[in-house]
Amino acid sequence: MEVWAIANQKGGVGKTTTTIAVADALITRHQRVLLLDLDPQGSLTSYLQLDPDLVENTSYDLFDQVDRIQPKETGFDNLHIVGASVGPANLEKRASSLKGKGLVLNRWLDAQKEHYDYVLIDTPPALGMLMINALAACDQLLIPVQTDYLALKGLERMIKVLDMLGKSGRFIHYTLVPTMFDQRTNASTRTLEFLKNKYSDQLWSGVIPVDTKLREASRLGVPPSFLFAGSHGVLAYAALTDSLTGKLIEYA
Ligand SMILES: Nc1ncnc2c1ncn2[C@@H]1O[C@H](COP(=O)(O)OP(=O)(O)O)[C@@H](O)[C@H]1O
Ligand SMILES: [Mg+2]
Q1: CATH superfamily to which 2-251 belongs
Q2: Which of 44, 155, 211, 215, when mutated, tests ligand 1's pocket best, judged by the most ligand atoms within 8 Å of its CB?
Q3: 3-class secondary structure, 174
Q4: 11 or 153, which is more confident?
């Protein structure tokens, strides 16, 4: 079982879309996938038409009732989820107040090993304890980067955190995924150029284009390939997934 976290402390860059679209490509390739929604806003949970206000057994409980958590079916084969609930209590606070917090998630994930090929963790847009938990638990990290000037500042901070973790012995293999790329705009092409110059080793060689079909799929609550199999966005996420799984096989 491989655990992939999808993180960037900036919101609206395509984390949740990347999580569902990569999961979609994996289940299409007959892999068993567990989604873990660590974002208290519950976007991934709502995407799959579970009501974040009503779900029980959520990732929220991971931090104190870990043994009780059971993934739920999503209605799509080989795709299960531990949803997030937008509970009254503050998940971020709870995660930070626990002892041994970095390990809670690892321990629970260990118990899932027989059941899944991949676990994808969607994270909130904050460099807080929830993201740190996800980073502590993952085998590799995907960082969606919106191809827009404003994206770069946040990215630098994120990479500083990864460097710090690396120095403390927790080296995380990460891949930058340029998202919402629009080749007609200067902002997109220049941002991509910058990423190529500065982060060539960590940058995925493709791009995820702007594709309204991805937004449409999210509105309809369906993994994108189920409705728009040939669309540019779906094809790009399939290529990304193949390059990521290929990499892991090479490393094995
Ligand atoms: N490649 C894309 N093309 C068009 N719209 C996209 C694309 N990726 C994401 N979106 C849309 O942009 C918004 C933010 O994406 P989301 O995945 O929710 O970001 P995050 O999880 O980082 O906040 C959503 O409305 C989503 O449908
Ligand atoms: Mg999100």
Answers
A1: P-loop containing nucleotide triphosphate hydrolases (3.40.50.300)
A2: 215
A3: strand
A4: 11
Q: Which ligand 1 atom is at minimum distance from the Cα of 43?
A: 18
> How far apart are the C-alpha atoms of 135 and 128, rounded to whole Å?
11
Supply the DSSP string of 229-242, one letter for each residue: TTSHHHHHHHHHHH
Ligand whose nearest atom lies closest to the CA of 42: 2
Report which ligand 1 atom has the smallest distance to the Cα of 11: 23
Alpha-carbon distance 41 to 230, whole Å? 30
- Sign of torsion over alpha carbons 247, 250, 251, 252: positive
| Ligand that comes closest to the CA of residue 235 | 1
Q: Report CA(19)–ligand 2 centroid distance (Å).
A: 9
Closest atom, ligand 1, to C-alpha of 181: 1
The CA 5 to ligand 2 mean position distance, Å, reads 12
| E strand intervals along 52-106 | 72-73, 79-82
Average confidence (pLDDT) over 224-239: 97
Q: Is the pTM of this model over 0.90?
A: yes
* pLDDT attached to residue 89: 52
| Token output for 154 | 């946040």
Q: What pLDDT shows up at residue 252?
A: 34
Reference 238, options 23, 76, 44; nearest CA is 23
